[in-house]
Design brief:
The chain has 376 residues and is of the alpha/beta class. The protein folds into 2 domains: 23-109 and 116-248, 3-Layer(aba) Sandwich (Aspartate Aminotransferase, domain 2), CATH 3.40.640; 251-374, Alpha-Beta Complex (Aspartate Aminotransferase, domain 1). The protein has helices spanning 23-36, 44-57, 68-78, 93-101, 120-126, 146-156, 207-216, 238-248, 251-269, 303-312, 343-351, 363-374, and strands at residues 13-14, 61-65, 84-87, 105-108, 131-135, 159-163, 171-172, 175-176, 183-187, 200-204, 221-223, 226-227, 275-277, 284-285, 291-295, 315-316, 352-355. Keywords: Pyridoxal phosphate. One of its GO terms (biological process) is polysaccharide biosynthetic process.
Amino acid sequence: MTTNPVLPPKAPIYVTQPFLPPLEEFMPSLRAIWDAKVLTNGGPFHQRLESALAEYLGVRHIALFTNGTLGLLTALQTLRVSGEVITTPYSFAATAHSLLWNGLKPVFADIDPLTLNLDPDQIEAAITPQTTAIMPVHCYGTPCDVDRIQRIADTYGLRVIYDAAHAFGVKHQGDSVLNRGDLSVLSFHATKVFTTVEGGAIVCPDARTKQRIDYLKNFGIADEVTVMAAGINGKMNEIQAAFGLMQLEHVDRFIARRGQIAAHYRRHLSGVKGIRVLDVPAHTVANHSYFPIFVDEQYGLSRDALYERMRSRGVHARRYFYPLLSEMPMYRGLPSAARDRLPNARLAAQQVLCLPIYPALEDLDVQRVIDLIVER
């Protein structure tokens, strides 16, 4: 009598996983921090990371923060934004929350169905006498229509603050997309292409603006006896900065591996009926921060049914972004949150499923994800 061997269960696969190098690689930096006894307040690792990131990203000035949400809050304070701000309903909660925390009124505009970014026509249609700014999101790292958005802003005298949480290292027409608009805000959360565990940054065009940001992220303090503004404690500490410097040494390899995974997904899923994948726009250097697919009625299963099937097999895809910001309790009473005003965003939220993509994801596991989608 023979029995079938019991195979070990396959390890679960998540949408992302942070890169953690051998501990001994981080220990010299940790020892240097301990020896210097400088843990925060713009120490040497903080200063080194700001300089290294400005050079790597091709930007003029960058101010580090302990997380990206505080970066958004401070960017709005830096530009003294008031009144109404036009933004996207198809994003992470921090985008709209940063407006509420500043006493601003979010005004949602619909997205382009192909890029998932704010539709410039819808931006222009949403402008009122109370509008002072636009906060677009480079969704999944795909650049917004930055030229059109800037023309609209210039015509109506509006500020532009980009939520660039997904856009680390992304280039558009040969230049960093972070150089567009008045300010761009990055996230360095553990789920991002580049991480400082938690963290973020504001990219700005000139030294004077950076000085104001640096005051605001340190309680508004200019020196021991001078407080310039009602600031906040948004400083990145030395351990985060040291971790970021270590990550920066590997980031090109990370992005290249993400690109290989994205190409593998695209090659095997582009022809699957009922599954839509996003193309990398022309003249764009992508970072492959996410790999969303969109599941329509031709697929044979609903998006949620596919999501549950994948989870039952240990593949933890995510429905980024579902529900829409406009459907959350604190926003759904706004006139701009009306469902009939946001048809493209609603459809994307009902169809989207982000697949696992991170540097340590092995080819066999990428194929495991593909097989679950192709399976009928």
